[in-house]
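User: quick one - fold this with guanosine-5'-diphosphate bound?
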Amino acid sequence: MSKVRIHALAKELGIESKRMLELLHGMGVDAKTASSTIDDDTAEIVKGLVEDELKAGSGDEAMPTGTVGENPVKASQADSNTDTETLSAEVVTAEQAKTEPVKPAKEIPHRPPVVTIMGHVDHGKTSLLDFIRSSNVASKEAGGITQHVGAFEANTPRGKIVFIDTPGHEAFTSIRARGAQVADIAVIVVAADDSIMPQTREAIAHAKAAKVPIVVAINKIDIAGVNPEKVMQDLTNATLIPEAYGGDTIVVQISARTGQGIDDLLENLSLVAELEDLRADPDGELAGVIIEAKVDKQAGVLATVLVQGGTLEVSDFLVVGELYGKVRAMTDSFGTRITSAKPGVAVQVLGFSQTPIAGELVKRAKNEHDAREIIARRKETRVDAADDAEREAAIGQGKGAAAGLSIEDLLGKVGEVKIEKRQVNLILRADTQGSLEALEGILLRENNDDVEVHILFAGIGAPTEGDVLLASTAIDTKIMGFSVTPSSGVQKIADNKKVEIKTYRIIYEMIDEVKKMIRGTIEPVFEDKFVGRAEVRQIIKVPKAGGNIAGSYVLEGKIMRSGKASVLRKGKEVAKGQISGLKRFKDDVREVLTGFECGINVSNFDEFEIGDLIVVTETVEVKV
Ligand code: GDP
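Assistant: Sure. Structure tokens for the protein plus guanosine-5'-diphosphate:
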């Protein structure tokens, strides 16, 4: 009995592989991915189902794009990864379908997938990128020299694929550490003559932590005598079970030197993208991420923006972190000037006066005035970008920052909070494979109904910068090392990012500590940490509010609404209390930074005098 690949059959019948998989699952067939195979009989049955479905859909031009509980089928379109395909992203529930006339949903087009390449050093990441660039990028200019802007678009028979051209998991995770997710798929390159190496394991951990689908490329199969089977075995041990072994990891054998298998790799990437159903609205709000930025001696600051939503245009005012710029010119990866860029396109933007940081989110402001306002607010409060986006959206809709949510809404939200299983997130490091495996085994036995011990990554050798970045992307993750010591550089980065690295020489001490963490019995030790100080420059009398407010100027650090205050007069403490009010003009704020004025209330004290110093501390848990 012969076998047929699911995606090939889907293509032949003119439906998406995703739909084909749904139909197969409905038949009880355990097909994992679109590159899995099915036998002839199954193919016949599923063909019948597709034909029935197409018949039901044909002749009915007005058929709603969102049919009940499933993605609609579009018979005429074999190639799903095009801008023209416009299926609904919205799914109508069965209940709604019964009671409401179904309106065609807004049609959101597909966008190309963004792929990052990771793996151990010298396994061929750069060679693979180079091969794809030279063979799949149709240069618009004779000679075809593409410029490095941080990403490039490859043309494949199944549509475009965007490759991030800085390989490696450090770049990928440092972008994630800033709150952005750039890649949709990770290709992990493993050299057939070397198999899984420490950085391969790291890359797998980083991709898994980001929850991006992984495709493995076994590279260098042109080398005589290499054994790809051995790599497949090793992948299985590293928790990536190849499809050929009954798992769901797509593994493709390639040679970045001869090009063998690369078309197959690209086809599989398109298939994964199809299943991920990646869509973005070019008419929606602009969303983008800086993927790299540099200063060019002649041109000035050049920042590459990957557009993730909306359309970026010349003359737009962009806000990135605490910087803004007006797009003076944009060039694509061929160095061609363009005037607009849709989702999935990476463009080099000229127009920032300072260099933005990779991983920062890009937003559009209406005009220069708005851009400045957004930045002033960010500087004052330094809230995180996601928080900020919500606030700006609320203000944009004419609602107050906190308005729009009633007490009932808030209570409702509180009511919705689910108590989830507590998770203890760890990154483990040990000096030898033996001790690492022993530790992993013992710690994983501690899983119980209330707590899940989640080991994001376990590796041999001292903790690395990559570990710190990985820890900083997941909530409450500790790095624990056995018989290893981080370098002072890595320790510094960890301190900076507030990631805790704990090292042990005695294995049972380490296990005990984790057990204590699991039971939540570690006694926390707290201490007060200096956060800022302000000088009182004006006494504002507000009898209605019950006393005086200290009109102050922040000299150092910041003043935090949640901080503790000590009022000093000529070097002596005259009062101590909690900050009970913090205002910028009339607005209540969470923080005020150096160089700004503010009004400060201190609990149980209001006899401020001009010249008093208000020193603010916060109570932090000391790492013991
Ligand atoms: P990276 O460190 O992962 O970016 O690896 P490179 O792309 O720099 O490749 C490391 C070395 O392996 C270079 O000498 C490449 O020429 C070689 N190499 C890369 N891919 C292949 C391949 O498919 N076959 C062979 N024989 N050599 C390769």
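One thing worth noting: Residues 59-105, 383-419 have pLDDT under 50 and may be disordered.
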